[in-house]
Amino acid sequence: MNKLDSEEKEILEAFERGKLKPVRNRRHEIARHRKAAAATFAKDSRINIRISSKDLRALQKRALAEGMPYQTLISSVLHKFVEGQMQPVEQRTGKRGQETRLKQ
Asked: Where are the domains of the chain?
């Protein structure tokens, strides 16, 4: 199993303690989430970018470790960034350019 992030661990622990409750109208909720997922992952535009071969190799290596194509990994990272789930490096660095830990 892949490593779980803190939110996933919290959900798993709540499930194991029996704290989760079923939703009303389960079929409607499943359909709603499927529609949102399909819209999120629809790939209807194409871009071309130039990056260093070193960065490309690193992306391909990371994607292989994650078990996905490297273009999917790049798309996922960009999606998370535009949705505000990732912060730019400039916001993560201190005054002296040193990385600082983000408050969550």
From this structure: 1-41, 50-80
pLDDT single digits (tens) 54-65 = 999 999 999 999
CA 64 to each of CA 48, 61, 80, 81: distance values in angstroms, whole numbers, following the listed order: 21, 5, 19, 21
What whole-number distance in Å separates Cα of residue 104 and Cα of residue 93?
Answer: 15
- Tell me the residue type at 15: F
CA distance 67 to 61: 10
pLDDT value at position 89? 72
Q: What's the average model confidence in pLDDT over 43-51? A: 89
Give dist(CA 102, CA 46) in Å, integer: 33
